[in-house]
Amino acid sequence: MTQRVPVAAQREASQIANEGLRLLQLDEIWSTQKQEEVHYIDYEDDRDRQASLIGLGEAMIEVLRSIAGKRDFLTREYPLLASDAVSRNIDRLDIGEREFWDRMKDAVEYIAEHKGEEIDRIQQQMQELGRGGMTAGDLTPRMRGAVTVLVGALLLAGSLVTGVAPPVSAALLTLGATMIAVGWPDLVR
Questions:
Q1: Which residue would you say has higher pLDDT here, 99 or 159?
Q2: By C-alpha distance, which of 171, 149, 109, 174 is closest to 17?
Q3: Is the pLDDT at 2 greater than 60, yes or no?
Q4: Which of 64, 118, 180, 184 has a CA positioned 20 to 30 A from the CA of residue 154?
Q5: Which alpha helices (H) appear in the chain, and where do they start and end?
């Protein structure tokens, strides 16, 4: 008998994927702004820019904690609930079922185990900004890779769970597979 993934589990996975995308976007904004800030270092509106960057750092910490707090759902519950749908549809991709789940689990474990270090790093950067200094300001490559792999896995699994892909699901399937491929090398450095 085919197991259906409960709507609540699909919604939870979707929310986590959205949080991961938000974290990646905040990281991109932070990194871009810090690069541009070199040209504005002595101007009065630097204080506004620094305050905005500190706000970005706070948001990144909040999202990172939230994702790490979903470890059990992501490594135990969701794989059990979604395994039937993924198993039936994974043959459409260039990744095996076991490899898919292993990569997702590796990403989640890395995020959960290293969130403290990452948060400390972001907080140090925020303190430096608060003192008027400059920082590199972004996630470490391994954390960025882990979040990218996780988001990709959730997008891909979500598309497979919904069955034969309408246009949006097909796009998410492709995006998910691409994110896994792009994030993996950074995660396993």
A1: 99
A2: 149
A3: no
A4: 118
A5: 7-37, 46-68, 71-72, 78-89, 97-130, 141-161, 167-187
User: What's the whole-number average pLDDT of the chain?
Assistant: 85
The one-letter amino acid at 97? E
Whether the full predicted model's pTM is greater than 0.85, yes or no, is yes
pLDDT in tens, 24-48: 999 998 887 765 554 444 445 666 7
DSSP summary character for residue 95: S
- Distance between CA atoms of 179 and 150, rounded to whole angstroms? 8
The amino acid that residue 109 corresponds to is E
| Contacts of the segment 86-94: beta carbons below 8 A, 24+ positions apart | 86/157, 86/160, 86/161, 88/2, 88/160, 89/160, 89/163, 90/160, 92/173, 93/156, 93/173, 93/177, 94/177
C-alpha distance from residue 19 to each of 22, 61, 74, 144, 154 (Å): 5, 11, 13, 13, 11
Exposed e or buried b for every residue in 136-175, given b needs 16+ CB within 10 A? ebbbeebbbbbbbbbbbbbbbbbbbbbeebeeebeebbee
